[in-house]
Design a protein that fits this description.
4-stranded antiparallel beta sheet; 377 residues; Jelly Rolls
Length: 377
């Protein structure tokens, strides 16, 4: 049983879910969430077992061949199993996105189902519930990402993730007062190429915001003893010895464990590729802010939940699962639909996010930081 999501809720939160949700007995091999379709309900698994899978791209020749052999129009590839306590349908948090995964019961199961519209109203009206609910989702998705980590270590990755649009989910969702607070409580740090900002197996005690430059995310090639990782001296490691590169992060992105604030060891290493500048925000200041400002807590936890969902979707794509995504340098096919295409609302949101990020850089410049180094390219 997964207690990750429920342990973030209060008794009152659980009572509300039980009162408003519909308890359903579901037969084995029933489709709960259909891939590439809008999500209108969320489900909490009470008992039973379900499988999370992805639909393979039916334009791929090899996939079509297997589909013909098995007399199935589209193949599914199982990613993981879901247990009591798991939440289903969390991708509805990202407006305009359809489900990237497909979920069906492996055995007779009991689900608590809640319409998305009713939940949305509760999240808007009850900020304490919203902060706890979003945090629960962020923690749950982080655990699912950790389940995929062994595959990241051993698999040949389809692409190296470029999280360049993460600014869309950060500054577009924060208020001006939130940015002011980060500037006031953060400290700018310059990184030389090769600087190890986070090391796998060690605590992540600071949240970083990349202001300029480029960093890469790495995981060890093989699973190591946690104590070996924790007590390895930073000075004895070189970037190449930290393992394989799985992603590159660009200005406007947070660096640190997802979700932030848990007393967990870093699940990956982060290394500066070029001369970079980060804004470092201590965990103690963040925790105090969350306790004192419920509005900030809601926005910050929703941000972390959204990022965790996006990273889970991207990781599935990196491993070669699921539908087609666009990546830099790829030729566009006019007849194809790409799962990561931006809609008009997202483009407007991105414009707002970019404006806020540059406003933050200007504020830092006024505080004495070098303008040339702050300007992004």
């Amino acid at each position: 049983m997964s207690q990750t999501f429920l342990q973030e809720l209060s008794n009152e939160d659980i009572d509300w879910l039980m009162a408003k949700g519909k308890r359903q007995q579901i037969k084995a091999d029933s489709l709960i969430i259909q891939g590439n379709q809008p999500i209108t309900e969320i489900h909490l698994v009470i008992n039973g077992c379900l499988t999370l899978s992805v639909l393979q791209d039916d334009d791929h020749a090899l996939h079509r061949a297997f589909a013909l052999l098995e007399e199935q129009p589209i193949l599914e590839r199982e990613i993981m199993q879901l247990q009591p306590g798991d939440l289903l349908g969390e991708e509805w948090l990202i407006k305009g996105k359809k489900s990237s995964t497909q979920i069906r019961t492996q055995q007779p199961s009991t689900l608590l189902t809640l319409p998305q519209r009713q939940l949305t109203h509760k999240l808007e009206e009850d900020r304490g519930f919203a902060a706890r609910f979003y945090r629960g989702i962020a923690l749950l998705l982080t655990e699912r990402l950790l389940q995929l980590k062994p595959k990241l270590r051993t698999s040949e990755l389809k692409t190296i993730a470029h999280q360049g649009r993460e600014v869309l989910f950060t500054f577009g969702r924060l208020h001006d007062s939130d940015i002011d607070w980060m500037i006031t409580h953060g400290t700018c740090q310059k990184l030389k190429p090769g600087t190890i900002l986070l090391q796998e197996g060690r605590p992540a005690q600071t949240l970083y915001l990349l202001l300029n430059g480029l960093v890469k995310v790495m995981v060890a090639d093989t699973t190591a003893n946690p104590l070996d990782l924790a007590f390895a001296a930073l000075g004895t490691h070189t970037p190449d010895s930290l393992g394989k590169e799985i992603a590159r992060l660009r200005p406007g992105e947070f660096i640190g464990e997802m979700p932030f604030g848990e007393t967990r060891l870093a699940s990956s290493s982060v290394v500066a590729v070029a001369e970079s500048l980060v804004l470092a925000i201590p965990s103690a200041a963040l925790k105090l802010k969350q306790q004192q400002d419920v509005g900030w807590a809601v926005r910050f936890e929703k941000l972390l939940a959204t990022l965790a969902i996006e990273r889970f979707r991207e990781t599935i794509h990196q491993l070669g699962y699921g539908k087609r995504f666009y990546h830099p340098g790829q030729s566009l096919e006019p007849s194809w639909h790409y799962d990561d295409e931006l809609d008009i609302e997202s483009l407007d949101h991105l414009n707002l996010a970019g404006s806020r990020f540059h406003w933050m850089l200007n504020r830092l410049e006024l505080q004495g930081y070098n303008h040339h180094f702050l300007v992004t390219t």
